[in-house]
Amino acid sequence: MLWIIIYNFILFPFFFVLIIFLSFFSKKIREGVYGRLNSKKIINEFISKSKNKDIYWFHAASLGEYEQIKPVLSALKEVEPDSLFVLSFFSPSGFNFVEDEDVDCKIYLPFDFRWTVKNYLKRLKPRKLILAGYDVWPNLIWAAKELNIHTVLFAARFSNRSAKSYPIIKMFYRNIYNSFSAIYTISDADNRQLKFIIGEKYLPILRTLGNPRYDQVKLKSDKFTNERTRSVLQRPKRLILGSMHHEDERRLASSIFNLISDSTDVSLIWAPHTPSNKNISRIETLLIRNDIPYQKLGEKNIEELKTKVVIVDSVGRLSQLYWHGQIAYIGGGFSSGVHNVMEPAIARLPVFFGPKYDNFHEAEELINKEGGFSIDSGEELHIQVASLFDNKDKFLNSSYSATNVIHDNLGSSTRIVRSLVHD
Hints:
Elements: H1 2-23, H2 27-49, E1 55-60, H3 63-79, E2 84-89, H4 92-95, E3 105-108, H5 114-124, E4 128-132, H6 138-146, E5 150-156, H7 167-177, E6 182-185, H8 188-198, E7 205-208, H9 213-221, H10 225-229, E8 238-244, H11 246-262, E9 267-272, H12 277-289, E10 294-296, E11 309-311, H13 318-321, E12 327-330, H14 342-346, E13 351-353, H15 361-368, E14 372-374, H16 378-390, H17 392-408, H18 412-422
Parallel strand pairs: 1-2, 1-4, 2-3, 4-5, 5-6, 6-7, 8-9, 8-12, 9-11, 10-11, 12-13, 13-14
Helix pairs in contact: 1-2, 3-9, 3-18, 5-6, 11-16
């Protein structure tokens, strides 16, 4: 009861006021606020057509978490073909770019006010509420428990370096996680850390079931059969910069430019994490200032472009572009945390990323199997990438190791669906 009072009268009101304030300065945040206002109308229209069918409500923070949800949702749809599926997002970067034929209703997650989430749950009456990853909202979970709605968190990750291990914060999360019906962690280490947080007398069902994102990456890669059958050494000698943040640019751009200038046969595909006009213009300015020829990809086929640098100026093409290069650097590792390293790995690319990867099991797996490498500076990236390009045996060993990490971790979505049905 104490944590409910603290959250509802101190923590969340502060967060809400901050979001409203920031919405005046951020188009993305403002879009999310407006989207939540429209979600109630979408829910009402959906309920009027649902004909009392069973409903499963999935929630993803953003596009990355959707990649975990997709194989689970699709597999559950096969098991429950007469049920309906709601998918909610916290961020516009997920809501705007996901069009899934298996989803019957797409909404923004409502603001986590107790009366708001309880109203949504009462109206939807989901058979199960299923969350992926880390985007856990206390009132949503507490309200679902009060209404006897089965709640599941899957692909859960718990680091022993997380603030959730600190005494006071741990007590807060102990209350939240013990309100779930079931929690499925990625690894046994995550499971042990979760037990440390929630205590010996835990209430939810706990299972270690892996990360379904591996299955989704494999599924997407199967669409590019022609590229997969080509030897990776026959591809252009390209370094692909995927999901780059401004912080990655600031630390690495100079060394990357030196790399492609030193080698006449090495080129670059540059994909910013958010391909806004502002970000694209900043990259163009950098390239012009360093006298490096470039073209924007647009809707063109990558094989049509003959230039030193190709800028990816749209969303949804990066996973396929990895099949047109030999090495990848994935952004986020110098700021919020490394992004999707699985897509380049399944494309047989050795994968580089910054030092902030502790909460990303797949990045740790790549390092352990020598298919991935963490770097701390642009100079280190330059040296290691050049070494792979120059050493065929070292390159092939890393390439095959990266892909094997994906294959060794397949099957999680099947295990999760089996548990969702029986738990």
